[in-house]
Amino acid sequence: MANPIIPGIPQTEQDLLYSKLNAYNQGRAPYKEAGAYLVVLPRPEHPQYTLWVYSPLPERQSIFYICDLSTDIHETLRMASTLCFYSPRSLLLVEHNAKRMQSKGDDIIPIGKYRGHFLHEILRIDPAYLAWIAFKFQPRIPKQERFVQIAKIYHSVYLDIQRRKTYQTTGGHFLGKEGEKVKNLTLTVLSVRLEDNPYKTQLKGTTPYFYVCQVLKLRDSVGNFVSIRINARTASRKSCRLPAVEHAYQTGEIMAIASARIARTYLIGSTKYTRLTHVKLQGAAK
Protein backbone atom coordinates (compact mmCIF):
# COMPACT_ATOMS: atom_id res chain seq x y z
CA MET A 1 0.00 0.00 0.00
CA ALA A 2 1.59 3.26 -1.19
CA ASN A 3 1.97 6.11 1.28
CA PRO A 4 -0.13 9.15 0.28
CA ILE A 5 1.36 12.64 0.13
CA ILE A 6 0.65 14.52 3.36
CA PRO A 7 -0.46 18.06 2.56
CA GLY A 8 1.38 21.06 3.97
CA ILE A 9 4.64 19.50 5.16
CA PRO A 10 8.02 18.97 3.41
CA GLN A 11 9.14 15.60 2.07
CA THR A 12 11.81 15.10 4.76
CA GLU A 13 9.19 15.53 7.47
CA GLN A 14 6.86 13.12 5.69
CA ASP A 15 9.61 10.52 5.51
CA LEU A 16 10.18 10.85 9.27
CA LEU A 17 6.47 10.53 10.05
CA TYR A 18 6.14 7.39 7.92
CA SER A 19 9.26 5.95 9.54
CA LYS A 20 7.69 6.45 12.98
CA LEU A 21 4.40 4.98 11.78
CA ASN A 22 6.20 1.89 10.46
CA ALA A 23 7.90 1.49 13.84
CA TYR A 24 4.53 1.85 15.60
CA ASN A 25 3.05 -0.91 13.41
CA GLN A 26 5.93 -3.30 13.97
CA GLY A 27 4.70 -6.58 15.43
CA ARG A 28 1.02 -5.89 14.74
CA ALA A 29 -1.22 -8.24 12.77
CA PRO A 30 -1.50 -7.91 8.96
CA TYR A 31 -4.44 -5.69 8.01
CA LYS A 32 -5.92 -8.39 5.76
CA GLU A 33 -6.31 -10.61 8.83
CA ALA A 34 -7.13 -8.28 11.73
CA GLY A 35 -8.25 -5.16 9.90
CA ALA A 36 -6.69 -1.76 10.52
CA TYR A 37 -7.34 1.73 11.81
CA LEU A 38 -7.21 4.30 9.02
CA VAL A 39 -6.24 7.93 9.44
CA VAL A 40 -7.86 9.60 6.43
CA LEU A 41 -6.36 12.75 4.93
CA PRO A 42 -8.39 15.98 4.89
CA ARG A 43 -10.40 16.94 1.84
CA PRO A 44 -11.80 20.31 0.69
CA GLU A 45 -15.18 19.86 2.37
CA HIS A 46 -13.67 18.34 5.53
CA PRO A 47 -10.43 20.01 6.78
CA GLN A 48 -9.88 17.61 9.68
CA TYR A 49 -8.13 14.25 9.58
CA THR A 50 -10.58 11.48 10.48
CA LEU A 51 -10.27 8.03 12.05
CA TRP A 52 -11.92 4.99 10.45
CA VAL A 53 -11.78 1.25 11.00
CA TYR A 54 -11.30 -1.29 8.23
CA SER A 55 -12.58 -4.83 8.79
CA PRO A 56 -12.03 -7.77 6.42
CA LEU A 57 -15.32 -9.37 7.58
CA PRO A 58 -18.25 -7.65 5.81
CA GLU A 59 -18.96 -8.77 2.26
CA ARG A 60 -19.56 -5.25 0.96
CA GLN A 61 -18.42 -1.90 2.37
CA SER A 62 -15.84 -2.63 5.04
CA ILE A 63 -14.60 0.82 6.14
CA PHE A 64 -16.50 2.59 8.91
CA TYR A 65 -16.15 6.07 10.38
CA ILE A 66 -15.16 6.48 14.04
CA CYS A 67 -14.41 10.14 14.77
CA ASP A 68 -12.79 13.41 13.69
CA LEU A 69 -9.23 14.07 14.85
CA SER A 70 -7.29 17.29 14.19
CA THR A 71 -6.29 19.58 11.33
CA ASP A 72 -2.61 19.05 12.25
CA ILE A 73 -0.95 15.80 11.19
CA HIS A 74 1.32 15.57 14.24
CA GLU A 75 -1.56 16.03 16.70
CA THR A 76 -3.68 13.66 14.61
CA LEU A 77 -1.14 10.83 14.76
CA ARG A 78 -0.61 11.43 18.48
CA MET A 79 -4.36 11.15 19.11
CA ALA A 80 -4.84 8.10 16.90
CA SER A 81 -1.79 6.19 18.13
CA THR A 82 -2.74 6.85 21.76
CA LEU A 83 -6.32 5.70 21.22
CA CYS A 84 -5.31 2.55 19.33
CA PHE A 85 -2.01 1.75 21.08
CA TYR A 86 -3.11 -1.55 22.66
CA SER A 87 -4.92 -2.85 19.60
CA PRO A 88 -3.39 -5.61 17.43
CA ARG A 89 -4.56 -3.61 14.39
CA SER A 90 -2.11 -1.51 12.42
CA LEU A 91 -2.54 2.25 11.98
CA LEU A 92 -2.42 3.40 8.35
CA LEU A 93 -2.51 6.81 6.68
CA VAL A 94 -4.73 6.84 3.58
CA GLU A 95 -6.54 9.17 1.19
CA HIS A 96 -10.30 9.55 1.34
CA ASN A 97 -12.17 7.10 -0.87
CA ALA A 98 -15.62 8.51 -1.60
CA LYS A 99 -16.93 5.18 -2.87
CA ARG A 100 -15.81 3.03 0.06
CA MET A 101 -16.09 5.61 2.85
CA GLN A 102 -19.74 6.48 2.84
CA SER A 103 -22.73 5.29 4.81
CA LYS A 104 -25.13 3.08 2.89
CA GLY A 105 -27.70 3.26 5.67
CA ASP A 106 -26.82 -0.15 7.10
CA ASP A 107 -24.98 1.46 10.05
CA ILE A 108 -28.08 3.43 11.13
CA ILE A 109 -30.02 2.05 14.11
CA PRO A 110 -33.54 1.03 12.95
CA ILE A 111 -35.13 0.38 16.37
CA GLY A 112 -35.29 1.47 19.98
CA LYS A 113 -34.38 4.71 21.77
CA TYR A 114 -31.50 5.50 19.37
CA ARG A 115 -33.47 4.90 16.21
CA GLY A 116 -32.10 7.00 13.31
CA HIS A 117 -28.65 7.44 14.90
CA PHE A 118 -25.39 6.05 13.53
CA LEU A 119 -23.57 3.25 15.33
CA HIS A 120 -20.43 5.42 15.62
CA GLU A 121 -22.49 7.88 17.71
CA ILE A 122 -23.56 5.12 20.08
CA LEU A 123 -19.95 3.96 20.36
CA ARG A 124 -19.20 7.27 22.11
CA ILE A 125 -22.31 7.77 24.22
CA ASP A 126 -23.67 4.30 25.11
CA PRO A 127 -21.28 1.37 24.44
CA ALA A 128 -23.46 -0.96 26.54
CA TYR A 129 -26.30 -0.48 24.05
CA LEU A 130 -23.84 -1.14 21.24
CA ALA A 131 -22.92 -4.44 22.90
CA TRP A 132 -26.60 -5.34 23.18
CA ILE A 133 -27.06 -4.80 19.44
CA ALA A 134 -23.93 -6.81 18.65
CA PHE A 135 -24.77 -9.85 20.78
CA LYS A 136 -28.43 -9.77 21.84
CA PHE A 137 -30.40 -8.25 18.98
CA GLN A 138 -32.04 -10.91 16.78
CA PRO A 139 -32.02 -10.02 13.04
CA ARG A 140 -35.20 -10.72 11.10
CA ILE A 141 -34.08 -9.73 7.61
CA PRO A 142 -30.71 -9.90 5.79
CA LYS A 143 -30.17 -6.14 6.13
CA GLN A 144 -30.39 -6.46 9.91
CA GLU A 145 -27.85 -9.30 9.85
CA ARG A 146 -25.32 -6.93 8.28
CA PHE A 147 -26.31 -4.24 10.78
CA VAL A 148 -25.42 -6.62 13.64
CA GLN A 149 -22.14 -7.49 11.93
CA ILE A 150 -21.20 -3.80 11.74
CA ALA A 151 -22.18 -3.37 15.39
CA LYS A 152 -19.70 -6.12 16.28
CA ILE A 153 -16.95 -4.23 14.43
CA TYR A 154 -17.69 -1.07 16.41
CA HIS A 155 -17.81 -3.13 19.59
CA SER A 156 -14.29 -4.40 18.81
CA VAL A 157 -13.19 -0.75 18.57
CA TYR A 158 -14.69 -0.17 22.01
CA LEU A 159 -12.76 -3.16 23.38
CA ASP A 160 -9.51 -1.73 21.95
CA ILE A 161 -10.18 1.55 23.75
CA GLN A 162 -11.04 -0.27 26.98
CA ARG A 163 -7.86 -2.34 26.70
CA ARG A 164 -5.89 0.91 26.71
CA LYS A 165 -7.69 2.12 29.83
CA THR A 166 -7.13 -1.22 31.57
CA TYR A 167 -3.38 -1.25 30.92
CA GLN A 168 -3.01 2.38 31.96
CA THR A 169 -4.83 1.63 35.21
CA THR A 170 -3.02 -1.57 36.14
CA GLY A 171 0.45 -0.50 34.99
CA GLY A 172 1.00 -3.57 32.80
CA HIS A 173 2.41 -6.96 33.74
CA PHE A 174 5.82 -8.52 34.37
CA LEU A 175 7.37 -10.19 31.33
CA GLY A 176 8.21 -13.30 33.34
CA LYS A 177 10.11 -14.48 36.40
CA GLU A 178 13.61 -13.51 37.46
CA GLY A 179 16.24 -15.53 35.61
CA GLU A 180 14.01 -16.37 32.66
CA LYS A 181 15.07 -15.61 29.09
CA VAL A 182 12.82 -13.57 26.80
CA LYS A 183 13.03 -13.27 23.01
CA ASN A 184 11.86 -11.07 20.15
CA LEU A 185 10.74 -7.97 22.00
CA THR A 186 9.82 -4.69 20.33
CA LEU A 187 9.98 -1.83 22.83
CA THR A 188 9.38 1.91 22.64
CA VAL A 189 11.71 4.18 24.63
CA LEU A 190 9.73 6.30 27.10
CA SER A 191 12.59 8.08 28.85
CA VAL A 192 16.39 8.19 29.00
CA ARG A 193 18.52 9.13 32.00
CA LEU A 194 22.31 9.42 31.90
CA GLU A 195 24.46 8.58 34.92
CA ASP A 196 28.13 7.84 35.53
CA ASN A 197 29.27 4.34 36.44
CA PRO A 198 31.12 5.01 39.72
CA TYR A 199 33.01 1.70 39.56
CA LYS A 200 34.60 2.49 36.21
CA THR A 201 35.26 6.22 36.60
CA GLN A 202 39.02 6.80 36.74
CA LEU A 203 41.74 9.43 36.67
CA LYS A 204 44.61 9.38 34.20
CA GLY A 205 47.01 11.98 35.51
CA THR A 206 44.71 14.89 36.24
CA THR A 207 42.12 14.00 33.57
CA PRO A 208 38.94 12.21 34.68
CA TYR A 209 37.40 9.55 32.45
CA PHE A 210 33.73 8.73 32.87
CA TYR A 211 31.87 5.65 31.65
CA VAL A 212 28.32 6.80 31.16
CA CYS A 213 25.27 4.56 31.51
CA GLN A 214 21.94 5.12 29.76
CA VAL A 215 19.03 4.12 32.00
CA LEU A 216 16.07 3.45 29.73
CA LYS A 217 12.40 3.13 30.57
CA LEU A 218 10.50 1.35 27.79
CA ARG A 219 7.10 -0.12 26.99
CA ASP A 220 5.98 -2.96 24.74
CA SER A 221 2.96 -2.96 22.40
CA VAL A 222 0.55 -4.21 25.07
CA GLY A 223 1.60 -1.81 27.83
CA ASN A 224 4.18 -3.76 29.84
CA PHE A 225 6.99 -1.61 31.25
CA VAL A 226 10.68 -2.45 31.01
CA SER A 227 13.93 -0.94 32.28
CA ILE A 228 17.36 -1.47 30.72
CA ARG A 229 20.81 -0.11 31.52
CA ILE A 230 23.09 0.41 28.53
CA ASN A 231 26.73 0.85 29.55
CA ALA A 232 29.04 2.85 27.29
CA ARG A 233 32.03 0.94 25.98
CA THR A 234 34.16 4.04 25.57
CA ALA A 235 35.05 6.72 28.09
CA SER A 236 33.88 10.33 28.11
CA ARG A 237 35.85 13.34 29.30
CA LYS A 238 32.70 14.89 30.81
CA SER A 239 30.36 13.59 33.47
CA CYS A 240 26.96 12.28 32.27
CA ARG A 241 27.76 12.93 28.61
CA LEU A 242 27.98 10.17 26.04
CA PRO A 243 30.95 10.17 23.66
CA ALA A 244 30.05 10.64 20.01
CA VAL A 245 30.84 7.02 19.11
CA GLU A 246 28.11 5.68 21.41
CA HIS A 247 24.49 5.39 20.29
CA ALA A 248 22.34 7.85 22.26
CA TYR A 249 18.81 6.53 22.65
CA GLN A 250 15.94 9.00 22.17
CA THR A 251 12.39 9.12 23.52
CA GLY A 252 10.06 7.43 21.03
CA GLU A 253 12.83 5.30 19.50
CA ILE A 254 12.06 1.63 18.83
CA MET A 255 14.37 -1.03 20.29
CA ALA A 256 14.14 -4.47 18.69
CA ILE A 257 15.58 -7.09 21.06
CA ALA A 258 16.52 -10.58 19.88
CA SER A 259 17.00 -11.93 23.41
CA ALA A 260 17.50 -10.79 27.01
CA ARG A 261 17.39 -12.10 30.56
CA ILE A 262 15.03 -10.93 33.32
CA ALA A 263 17.22 -9.63 36.11
CA ARG A 264 14.43 -8.57 38.46
CA THR A 265 10.83 -7.42 38.67
CA TYR A 266 9.71 -4.49 40.80
CA LEU A 267 6.94 -1.96 41.40
CA ILE A 268 7.01 1.83 41.19
CA GLY A 269 3.66 2.87 42.63
CA SER A 270 1.17 0.62 40.84
CA THR A 271 3.36 0.21 37.74
CA LYS A 272 5.08 -3.13 37.21
CA TYR A 273 8.59 -3.04 35.74
CA THR A 274 10.75 -5.81 34.35
CA ARG A 275 14.48 -5.12 34.37
CA LEU A 276 16.40 -6.77 31.53
CA THR A 277 20.09 -7.61 31.25
CA HIS A 278 22.26 -9.47 28.70
CA VAL A 279 20.38 -7.62 25.97
CA LYS A 280 21.12 -8.69 22.39
CA LEU A 281 19.65 -6.43 19.72
CA GLN A 282 18.20 -7.80 16.50
CA GLY A 283 20.65 -7.45 13.65
CA ALA A 284 23.60 -6.85 15.99
CA ALA A 285 26.93 -8.46 15.12
CA LYS A 286 27.60 -11.70 16.99
UniProtKB/TrEMBL annotation:
InterPro entries: ExoX-like_C (IPR046768). It comes from the Bacteria. Residues 112-137 form the Exodeoxyribonuclease X-like C-terminal domain. It holds the Pfam family ExoX-like_C. This is Exodeoxyribonuclease X-like C-terminal domain-containing protein. It comes from Bacteroides muris (ex Afrizal et al. 2022). The lineage of its organism: Bacteria, Pseudomonadati, Bacteroidota, Bacteroidia, Bacteroidales.
